[in-house]
Amino acid sequence: MKKFNVVFVGGGSTYTPDMMELMCLVKETFPVKKIVLYDNDEERQEPIGQYGEVLFREYYPELEEYVYTTDKATAFKDMDFAFVQIRAGGLPMREQDEKIPLKYGVIGQETCGPGGFAYGIRSVLAMKDLIEDIRRYSPDTWILNYSNPAAIVAEACKLLFPDDHRIINICDVAIDIMDVFCPLADKKRQDVEPRYFGLNHFGWFTALYDKETGEDVLPTILQELLSGNASDKLGFTAKNDDYWNFTFNHLEKMVKDYPYSLPNTYMQYYLYPQEMVEHSDPNYTRANYVMDNREKNVFAYCREIVKLGKMKGTKHDLDLRYGENADNETEKASVANNDAHATYIIELAESLAYNKHDIFLLMVKNDGVIPNVEEGMMLEVACRVGSYGAQPLAYGPIGTFEKGLLESQYAYEKLTVEATLEGSYQKCLQALAVNRTVVDTDLAKTILDEYIEANGQYFPTFS
């Protein structure tokens, strides 16, 4: 079995320890020869890189080479897979993304509304440079991007690299939804094949087919949500996070108002923007929570292991944490507060590497997949994945309500990318004004001008 060379781009990400631990746990099914961590922030990457030295020494002695670096040639040369998780501007800029619109009574969220707009501009510029660098050293590597805001990044990749079919944009939110809610039908995510359509963080499940019987189990899940008992039945033990508990509970409300499909949890920002603003604290946003919790916890975890110099025989021993019951990747991927994030990326890489033809929800260009929306729209739909890449499954026409929402949201995403690449203030204003969470032009202009000032060199010059 071939052993692969893998680079984690964004080595200082708090998701990187999850990915590295999972690599140890799936080494029989996805063996690697070389692992590289790359980040442009040497200080941030250092503790995670040092942690990797301890981890791989004890749990992956077969690994031939492991390095962490800020050098592009070292990181990208002769790679089979590049797993990309970057955050242009870091969490401090995310805080600005969220707090500026909240001052004006507008949604302040990482990827939705104005926050996604500002983050998207930074991400498009960073991803353009990054992909060019990777391609300089590894023309054929699979670039699996899970950097946010994925919809805007995917649209930019389509425009900037139109012939590069080895760039795949992926998100784990829809998978999280399946992991949480499939038990309402006595199923696991791996037991069903999804039918889903939309844009990233903006879509709907319309069927979940049992792989053995072909039965659609989504009606059972919807009925449980409509009964009002789903929260009690699930217990939400998968998420030790009040923010996500609120979000998944809020899904019941969306299903009661629109009882024919299971929406992506992020639809709450577009369907109930006033309620979501009222639920927000303009002085302490999700960015603050992440910095005070996950950010501190993951780096403390890495530093503790580096200080110990070992994991085996300690409370961090992977064998103790997983034992004989960890018989699949989903059960294994609970490291460092992680859920589906690491698992889904590895499952995708395996399907590409071994031509498995598995089904994934990915962002692909609309080429007749949904015939009654704009051709070229970067849809998130079910795709069959093999060594040939991602092949979307035809979905068919969609209803007027969803069509209207999708086309408006896509106009915002498209305008954001065009504004970034052209340096157009006019298109920035149009993007925010067409966004469902903003609408008002004067408000859009106020938020835009504050973003331009706050982002400084992270933004291009808009004229």
TrEMBL record:
Site feature Increases basicity of active site Tyr, where: E110
Cofactor binding note of this UniProt entry: Binds 1 NAD(+) per subunit.
Ranges of residues in domain Glycosyl hydrolase family 4 C-terminal: 196-438
Keywords linked to the UniProt accession: Cobalt, Glycosidase, Hydrolase, Iron, Manganese, Metal-binding, NAD, Nickel
Domain of life: Bacteria
Binding site for Mn(2+): C171, H201
Cofactor: NAD(+)
GO-annotated biological processes: carbohydrate metabolic process
GO molecular function, one term: hydrolase activity, hydrolyzing O-glycosyl compounds
Binding, substrate: R94, N148, R286
SUPFAM superfamilies: LDH C-terminal domain-like, NAD(P)-binding Rossmann-fold domains
Species of provenance: Enterococcus malodoratus ATCC 43197
Transmembrane feature ranges: none
Protein name: Glycosyl hydrolase family 4 C-terminal domain-containing protein
InterPro entries: Glyco_hydro_4, Glyco_hydro_4_C, Lactate_DH/Glyco_Ohase_4_C, NAD(P)-bd_dom_sf
Active site: D172, Y266
Family from the record: Belongs to the glycosyl hydrolase 4 family.
